[in-house]
């Protein structure tokens, strides 16, 4: 993969035809080589790992050897994620350089994000479940998405890192259990 990685090309490569679940994050990482859909990443990929653990493991107990398996077969697991109708999107279509800019950028891009959702092929407003990941994504998008008629979870999904892994897996598993 090129050092000039195009994250949107990767995202498009793994977009499902019929979308059952969208996990909405804030923005892509500053380092595009750490992007969720980059199947060559072998470290610093906690969102990918915790998502796969939530989908493929039946308990919240996690073995270290499974991390190696999820990384070794990353492209296959991402294809399975796609076949299952799952998709990851970001509110802000660009990287956010500075932490203080995060809340402001999410607020600024909320309307254009809703416009992107409205145009997204494969999304059914009544059936596609939307999970909002992180406090400021949740706080800025929950009400507008509900007003626009989207099927949004009323529970915030924490980021799958920084000590929030068990809570992330628990909430994601609960939401997966609600899907048709």
What does this structure look like?
The structure is a single chain. The protein is an alpha/beta fold and 180 residues long. The chain has helices spanning 7-13, 46-56, 64-72, 74-83, 101-119, 135-147, 165-178, and strands at residues 21-27, 86-92, 129-132, 151-152. Strands 2-1-3-4 form a four-stranded parallel sheet. Strand 3, helix 6 and strand 4 (151-152) form a beta-alpha-beta unit. The radius of gyration is 15 Å and the shape is globular.
Write a concise keyword list for the protein shown above.
single chain, 180 residues, alpha/beta, 4-stranded parallel sheet, 4 strands, 46% helix, globular
H/E element order: HEHHHEHEHEH
Please, how many helices? Answer: 7
**Under CATH, the topology is which?**
Uracil-DNA Glycosylase, subunit E
The tally of strands reads 4
Short description:
The chain is α/β, with parallel strands linked by helices. The protein has helices spanning 7-13, 46-56, 64-72, 74-83, 101-119, 135-147, 165-178, and strands at residues 21-27, 86-92, 129-132, 151-152.
Topology:
Blueprint: H1 7-13, E1 21-27, H2 46-56, H3 64-72, H4 74-83, E2 86-92, H5 101-119, E3 129-132, H6 135-147, E4 151-152, H7 165-178
């Amino acid at each position: 993969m090129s050092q000039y990685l195009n994250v949107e090309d990767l995202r498009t490569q793994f977009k499902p035809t019929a979308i059952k679940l969208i996990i909405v994050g804030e923005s892509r990482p500053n380092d595009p080589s750490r992007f969720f859909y980059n199947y060559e990443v072998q470290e610093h990929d906690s969102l990918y790992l915790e998502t796969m653990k939530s989908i493929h493991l039946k308990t919240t107990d996690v073995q270290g050897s499974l991390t190696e398996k999820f990384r070794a077969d990353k492209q296959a697991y991402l294809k399975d994620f796609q076949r299952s109708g799952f998709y990851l999107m970001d509110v802000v279509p660009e990287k956010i350089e500075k932490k203080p800019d995060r809340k402001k950028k999410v607020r600024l891009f909320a309307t254009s994000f809703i416009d992107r959702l409205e145009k997204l092929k494969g999304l059914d407003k009544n059936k596609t479940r939307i999970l909002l990941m992180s406090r400021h994504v949740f706080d800025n998008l929950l009400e507008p998405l509900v007003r626009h008629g989207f099927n949004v979870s009323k529970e915030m999904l924490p980021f799958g890192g920084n000590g929030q892994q068990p809570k992330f897996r628990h909430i994601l598993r609960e939401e997966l259990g609600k899907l048709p």
